[in-house]
Amino acid sequence: MCLIQGPARYFKALWNWHALITNIFFILTFIFWIAAYWDAKKNDQVDLERKYWNQLDSVLISEGTFAVAVVMAFFRLMFFCRLNYYMGPVQISLGKMCADLAKYITIFVIIMISFTCAMCRFYQYYDGMVQEDSYGIKTQQISSFVNFQKTLKTFFWGLLGMAPLESADVIISNLPGPKENTSIINTHDFTENMGYVCFAFYEMLTMTMLMNMLIATMSSTFQRVLDNLNTEWTFGKTDFYLEYMMQSTLPPPFNLIPTQLGFNLIKQVASFSSTDAQEDQRANDYNALISQLVQRYFREKDTVTTTSEIEELRQEVNELKLACKDLIDIITSR
């Protein structure tokens, strides 16, 4: 389909990107399975326990790629929800909400990196320190802000409200006391308080402001889809039909069954030698078709809007007539 439609047109559809990435992960899974087989056969370590495996063992990598591929493969079921009258608008809303989320990701990343660079520099000295009180209870410095990676992870989960409150605590190792076998407990209260202020300001900025703005934007997007429920669903369903009309195979898993169209496609791809003029003509035809669909979409939308305005006007006129009639009855009775 990429050869027939051309890469520019084929990759305009996000679901085609989804299919490509899914296939890549499945192919990588098979490649690492084969690599693991040859590795075990070469080194004769078939019965080696998993705990001795290297972190980049072929089996471990294949399990990771296979997990991602399975998730994406089952997520493909969302593509067929567009055919349902009730699930179709929900699927369309989900796609539009993902676009809203992408707009906010840049702001979230900038805020997270700015706080991360400051906090990891602020707490890196206290990494690994352990403090023991007079009762012999030991307390170790929490590793939430001791380096860049852990600080970024803490702020990410803090964005979802899952970071521990004691993340900003400062623990200092015991200092030697004036006498033998004695120690002094020192505290850096100013550093700890500044850490809590920064952490609290981050939570208010992201959770209270940005997260609520994102939720409001998503709610507005969902409401716009519901306001044009019939049109949005019809447009999405038509786009679904057009995509499958161009396919030469049945939907998965029936695409494993050979069809006559599939053999014709293989012959067409094998002898594929179209000119630039033919590619331009196909692109123009496709653009013309999409343009007609979009124009029909807006015509129906304007028609619905005009009809609703006329109905509201008629209702107001009827209410005015009833009010005048009541007024006349009151004047006559007097």
UniProtKB/TrEMBL annotation:
Residues 303-330 form a coiled coil. One of its GO terms (molecular function) is store-operated calcium channel activity. One of its GO terms (biological process) is regulation of cytosolic calcium ion concentration. Keywords: Coiled coil, Ion channel, Ion transport, Membrane, Transmembrane, Transmembrane helix, Transport. GO terms for cellular component: cation channel complex; plasma membrane. Its main location: membrane. It comes from the Eukaryota. It is found in: Membrane. It holds the Pfam family Ion_trans. It is a multi-pass membrane protein. Residues 6-225 form the Ion transport domain. The chain crosses the membrane at residues 20-38, 58-80, 101-124, 194-215. PANTHER family: TRANSIENT RECEPTOR POTENTIAL CHANNEL, TRANSIENT RECEPTOR POTENTIAL-GAMMA PROTEIN. This is Ion transport domain-containing protein. It comes from Henosepilachna vigintioctopunctata.
